[in-house]
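INTERNAL AUDIT FORM
Audit reference: QA-55
Scope: verify that the stored structure record matches its stored sequence.
Auditor: D.O.
Record contents follow.
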Amino acid sequence: MLLKTRIITAIVLIVGFTAALFKASDMAWAFITLAATLIAVWEWSNLIKLAKRQMYLNMTIALSLGLMVIFASNIPLGHYKDELEFVLLCTSALFWIVLAPVWLISRKKVSQKFILSLLGLSLLLALWVALNGLHSISPWLLLGVLATVWLADSAAYFAGKSFGRHKLAPEISPGKTWEGVAGAMLAATFYGLLLCHYLHYSLWLIVGLWLIVVLSVMGDLFESLLKRQAGVKDSSQLLPGHGGVLDRIDRLIPTLPLVLFYIYFPLFSNLQLHVR
């Protein structure tokens, strides 16, 4: 029964997501992804055990910043849109490249709810910025990055089930193994070779896909750490058979913002941050 529920939910999600990805305008896509982001913010706030008033405050902040970005040309302070996106993507890059590895290795429990709340808002809004930025460049580009993450996740699952012997992080997520990670890397390699062969990309693309796999594993482990410290199995029960929104996007939280940051870095490096 659980498997049937998972399959039905997955089909609904895939059909709805694909339709929105290719049929929705940039404005509609921004609102759809903002709605999902707000749910994720609520789940994050619940995981770190914020009071209801603080949870609503987080939702209000996320919604306000999202609307500011969407309607940047029509509201006061809208001219800070580029600076806000730059700060969010930089924050995400700094966290996942520098801080997250140390946090995962030490498994340190941070009790300061303000810090965790600010971190969640920053990372989830950075993901939202990346979803919209990559979509505006090309829905196919966004789908290509998502396919890397989903393919690696599936390969890790099957490789871990079939060959898993050595635990990756037993104190955080006992089911994950180094063999699963190797399977994910192998799948990403074959995927990259196919893209390079048929689309004539440089083989350096494969290195980029390996980095995406590493980041996706970190995202998965980090959410698992939050859930373990919160004493829950899923971030919510919103998606039957699949848990919550955070459970579906945990691998995307580090990957998409860093992909967009890499693409836009030449532009960001020339961006002059100033106070008007």
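Auditor finding: record pair retrieved intact. The first helix runs from residue 2 to 23.
Action required: none
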